[in-house]
Amino acid sequence: MLFGREHVERYQETDGAEGHDWQGTTTLLLTTVGRKSGQKRTTPLIYRRKGDDAYTVIASKGGADEPPLWFTNLQANAEVEVQVLGDRFAARARTATPEEKPELWKAMAETWPAFDDYQKKTEREIPVVVLERV
Fold this sequence. Notes:
- The protein has helices spanning 4-14, 69-76, 101-111, 114-121; strands at residues 21-22, 25-33, 40-46, 48-50, 54-58, 79-84, 87-95, 128-133.
- The N and C termini lie far apart (32 Å).
- The protein has a single domain (4-133), classed as Electron Transport, Fmn-binding Protein, Chain A (Pnp Oxidase, Chain A, Roll).
- β6 and β7 form a beta hairpin.
- Strands 1, 2, 3, 4, 5, 6, 7 and 8 form an eight-stranded antiparallel beta sheet that branches.
- It is built from four helices and eight strands; from the N terminus they run αβββββαββααβ.
- It is α+β, with helices and mostly antiparallel strands.
């Protein structure tokens, strides 16, 4: 099973032929710029499409009380890079609005039911992030 750095490398090397399909779901690669380091960081994340030009991901960190670093990075700089299979593109990240979050969360939890468990583990409201192609 691919995970972490190996997941990112195999995904990039094979245009997602290895790494896109993962444990019964699908992943994309999200590249953010470190808010302190200025270095690019790439993370594989479970996703769902949102319309024609957007994708949703969840900033769960497995239900930890602090958000994942990629989320704090995009709060400082919403300009990101996304790779879905062989498609690489620039995107702008935003947190889903309170009005759209319930529907997006439900769709993501259908894709990866553990998201509901992660929310129960923390008092932090886990954000849904929308990645919109620019």
